[in-house]
Amino acid sequence: MSDDTNLFSLSGEIALVTGATRGIGAEIAQQFRAAGADVIGTATTAAGAVEIADRLGGDDAGKVLDVASDESVQALMKDLAERLPTILVNNAGIVRDNLLLRMKPDDWQDVVNTNLNSAYRLCKGCLRGMLRARRGRIINLSSVVGAAGAAGQANYAAAKAGLLGFTRALALEVAGRGITVNAIAPGYIETDMTAGVTSERKDAIVTQIPAGRAGSPLDVAGAAVFLASPAASYVTGTVLHVNGGMWMG
Ligand code: NAP
To answer: What atom of ligand 1 comes closest to residue 142's alpha carbon?
Structure first.
C-alpha cells in the first residue's frame, strides 16, 4: 500500500514548455504551475515572454525562443544552466497547409523544422540535466494527423508522425535512467491554429467526433499533467490520443 503522496503533484520540478504564449502551450504551462512546478514558458517575441511571465507570476517564467533555430535553443539552454528542466514539453508548432503539388519547398522545410527538428534540438539540450537529476519527463505534441493523415497536410503529417517514431526511440534510450518520453496526439482543439476553419467545416469535423464537441486546450493540458506527474512514472514510449474518440488507432 502506498502512502498518501499526491500522485499528480509537480512540486520540485522545473518544466520547460515551448510555445506557451497561447493555445495548448499556455494552458499546459498554467496547469503545471497549478500542480506546483517551477514553469518556464517560451514565446517567439520579447513581448510574448513578458506576457507569459505576468501570467505565470515570475519574472523569469517567460523566455524568448525560436525552436527552429539551433542558436536560439543553445542560447536558452545556456540561460537555464542553473535551472535545468526536469520536464520538457515540445509544444511549439505551425501549419502551412497545401496540397502537395502546390506545396512550396519552404512550407515543407519550415513545418518539419519547427515541429520535428525542434524536438531533436530541445531534447538534446535538456537530456544532460535530466540524466544528472536521474529523472525526467519529455512530452512531445504530435497530432491525430500524424497517425491518420489529412489531405493538404503532408508536411505537418510527416513531422507529427516523425515525432511518434522519435518518441519511441528516445524512450528506449533513456528508460533505464528514470526518464520517460511520451507523445500526446490531440484531435481537433479550438486554438489560433484552428481559428481559420470555416464554421461549416468545423460543423463537419465535429460530426465526426463521437464526444460531440471540439476539444479545448484544457483537455490536452490534463493529459500533459498526467504524463509529467509521478502517476505516469511507468508510462513511456506511448502516444496518448486526446481526440474525443475521433480516431482510435
Ligand atoms: P497555436 O495556438 O497556433 O500556438 C502555437 C504556439 O507555438 C505559440 O505559442 C507560438 O508562439 C509557438 N511557436 C510557433 N512557431 C514557433 C517557433 N518557431 N519557435 C517557438 N515557438 C513557436 O497552436 P496550438 O493549437 O496551441 O498547438 C500547440 C501544439 O499542439 C502544436 O504542436 C500543434 O501542432 C499541436 N496540435 C494542435 C492541434 C489543434 O487542433 N489546435 C491538434 C493537434 C496537435 P508565438 O505566440 O510567439 O508565435
So the answer is: 44
